């Protein structure tokens, strides 16, 4: 096996080996959550939908999850679903809640439901530019309890949507150029470079690349092999939860890996990644994706037919 441990794996190992470190991290997360200034938000239980929406928009900066621990966990788990420009400045927790507040304040309300227990649920959607010619849609789900207390339930990629999550409209070759620029800049999250490499191979805007360009990209990927290992690690995390909302992340990340292996790394992939791990990921996808709440509309346009995981997810 030649794959190096990723930064995420190293951090997880260190935490598991040191209970004191876990406590310190939790205390730091809780302190940061307290500093955000979230407070209880209430709305008239008898009010109509426009009134509830108005309260949510007005108090968007104060609205939070009902559990501080859940808040910190989701912020770090879902941060990579945000466009790179919204992942900073500051910590993951601050950036995540800033983006969620913006979605509640500026997004459009696409759905309203009332559950048997009297709780009301609102979905807010906001479409954001990830890079030139690329947009991503984000979803914030709000729960208004029957006693009038309002909470943020989830935020990130849409859990249920009748439209695409990512839309690619750029000219041919643009995505490859963006990918190489991202790979060369170590401050740019690696997942954005992988998204751009995937986009460069889609049927909507395939890039007619020279061998020298592919070799240059492969060299940059190899240089960031630790980040590639982290990307594989995250793919595995998504795959383990592919029966639920993480189905989209599992399929997207798996497609990006496939595109990079096929179009840029070739046989060099075997020296950078443990392919048995990829086989294990595929097995998890076969087992769990048939249970996923997947939508055909969420599948990026132009996805190659041999990326079977998408069809496995939406075949219900």
Structure description:
The mean pLDDT is 88. Strands 1, 2, 3, 4, 5 and 6 form a six-stranded antiparallel sheet that branches. With 316 residues, the protein is α+β, with helices and mostly antiparallel strands. The protein is built from 13 helices and six strands. The chain has helices spanning 7-17, 19-35, 49-58, 68-78, 92-106, 174-184, 190-199, 211-223, 225-240, 247-265, 269-272, 275-288, 308-314; strands at 41-42, 108-114, 120-131, 134-144, 149-156, 166-168. It folds into two domains: 36-156, no CATH class; 169-314, no CATH class.
Ends apart, CA distance between termini? 37 Å
Number of helices: 13
Order of helical and strand elements: HHEHHHEEEEEHHHHHHHH
Number of domains: 2
Topology (SSEs and partners):
Blueprint: H1 7-17, H2 19-35, E1 41-42, H3 49-58, H4 68-78, H5 92-106, E2 108-114, E3 120-131, E4 134-144, E5 149-156, E6 166-168, H6 174-184, H7 190-199, H8 211-223, H9 225-240, H10 247-265, H11 269-272, H12 275-288, H13 308-314
Antiparallel strand pairs: 1-5, 2-3, 3-4, 4-5, 4-6
Helix pairs in contact: 1-2, 2-4, 4-5, 6-7, 6-8, 7-10, 9-10, 9-12
Give the gist of this structure.
This protein has 316 residues and is of the alpha+beta class. 50% of the residues lie in helices and 14% in strands.
Question: What labels would you give this structure?
Answer:
316 residues, 50% helix, 2 domains, single chain
């Amino acid at each position: 096996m030649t794959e190096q441990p990723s930064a995420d794996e190293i951090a997880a190992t260190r935490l598991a080996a040191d209970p004191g470190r876990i406590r310190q991290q939790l205390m730091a997360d809780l302190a940061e959550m307290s500093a955000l200034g979230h407070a209880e938000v209430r709305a008239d239980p008898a009010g109509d939908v426009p009134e509830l929406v108005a309260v949510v928009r007005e108090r968007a900066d104060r609205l939070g999850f009902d559990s501080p621990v859940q808040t910190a966990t989701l912020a770090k788990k879902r941060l990579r679903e945000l466009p790179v420009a919204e992942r900073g400045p500051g910590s993951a927790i601050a950036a995540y809640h800033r983006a969620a507040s913006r979605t509640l304040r500026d997004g459009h309300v696409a759905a309203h439901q009332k559950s048997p227990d009297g709780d009301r649920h609102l979905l807010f959607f906001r479409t954001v530019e990830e890079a030139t010619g690329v947009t991503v849609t984000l979803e914030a789900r709000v729960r208004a309890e029957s006693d009038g207390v309002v909470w943020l339930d989830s935020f990130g990629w849409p859990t249920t949507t009748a439209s695409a999550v990512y839309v690619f409209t750029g000219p041919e070759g643009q995505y490859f150029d963006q990918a190489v620029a991202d790979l060369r800049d170590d401050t740019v999250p690696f997942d954005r470079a992988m998204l751009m490499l995937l986009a460069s191979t889609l049927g909507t805007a395939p890039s007619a690349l020279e061998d020298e360009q592919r070799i240059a990209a492969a060299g940059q990927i190899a240089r960031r092999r630790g980040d590639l290992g982290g990307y594989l690690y995250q793919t595995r995390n998504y795959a383990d939860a592919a029966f639920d909302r993480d189905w989209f992340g599992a399929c997207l990340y798996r497609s990006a890996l496939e595109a990079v292996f096929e179009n840029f790394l070739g046989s060099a992939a075997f020296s950078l990644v443990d392919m048995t791990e990829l086989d294990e990921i595929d097995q998890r996808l076969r087992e769990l994706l048939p249970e996923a709440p997947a939508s055909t509309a969420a599948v990026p346009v132009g996805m190659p037919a041999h990326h079977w995981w998408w069809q496995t997810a939406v075949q219900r």
